[in-house]
Amino acid sequence: MKIQRIDDLAVFLHTVEAGSFSAAARQLNLAPAVASASIKRLEEQLGTRLFERTTRRLRLSEAGERYLPHARAAFHALRDAEQALEADANQQPIDLAVRYGQPEDSSFVALPLAPDNRRVLCASPAYLAQHGSPQNISELSQHNCLCFRLGEAVHDRWRFAAPEHTTLRVRGDRTSDDGDTVRRWALRGQGIAYKSYLDIAQHLASGELVWLLPEVTGEPSPLMLLVINRRRLNPALRQLAGEMAAFCQGL
Fold it and tell me: N or C: which end of the chain has fewer CB within 10 A?
């Protein structure tokens, strides 16, 4: 079985698109002689000429035309295999993760667990007994709001979808880069939090936290199961996502 090198396939495909060895070499940052040698090596491996060369133009031979779609498929398969190995070499720490929001990395596959989940305002009965309950969104500025920090950015602009789209800058005496810490601060009566409903559903049911302004529609916070790539997506993983979605729906 003849095994083609991925760089030779890349030169072949770029030459087809560019129309010349020199143009393909420029695109790949190679010397023209190197590009020409790649094509010669590929032709020797295949035992046929891939291009018809004249003084005026370069065009695919009949064999080259037949080889082209297979070369494209082989190139993409080899490239995907290399990328998979590179991911392993980089000690990819996880195969899947549960995250809020759509992934920024388009290579992830996102399976929805709670697509309709939203953020809700909440505080403990002890906090409300001491400071009162806000009657509308604007009154949040009079309260100690517990904020989450991601990197250097503090999420102190709370967004609401209804009854109208509103963004309010809030203030408080503490911030944390750990969402669970914010939840525990709220439970201890140290301020008002703007949390994912799923994070506090059990505390709302037990009365440890009170849902504030329930008529206000909070910012969307869809929960997703992220899979590193589509090759990892198997029936067992889909079943897991279904069971997790059912659990979230129960909350």
Answer: N
Q: What is the pTM of this model?
A: 0.57
Q: Are residues 104 and 130 in the same domain?
A: no
Q: In whole numbers, what is the pLDDT of the chain averaged over residues?
A: 85
Same domain? 149 vs 209:
yes
Pairing of strands 153-155, 145-150: antiparallel
Q: Is 163 exposed, middle or buried (CB count within 10 Å of its CB: 0-12, 13-18, 19+)?
A: exposed
- Chain length of the chain: 251
> Is residue 1 in a domain?
no
Specify whether 184 is located in the same domain as 206: yes
Same domain, residue pair 212 and 133: yes
- Which tokens is 177 given? 């880069």
CB within 8 Å of 194: residues ≥ 6 apart: 119, 120, 121, 122, 145, 158, 218, 219
Q: Are residues 130 and 209 in the same domain?
A: yes
DSSP secondary structure code for residue 161 in this structure = E
* Residue ranges making up the domain that contains 102: 96-114+223-250
Q: Where are the beta strands (DSSP E) in the chain?
A: 51-53, 58-60, 96-100, 109-114, 119-123, 145-150, 153-155, 157-162, 166-169, 175-176, 192-196, 210-212, 217-218, 223-227
Instruction: State the CB neighbour count (10 A cutoff) for residue 221.
Output: 19
What would the pLDDT profile of 169-221 be if each residue is shown by its tens digit?
999 999 988 888 999 999 999 999 999 999 999 999 999 999 999 999 999 98
Q: Do 110 and 227 lie in a common domain?
A: yes
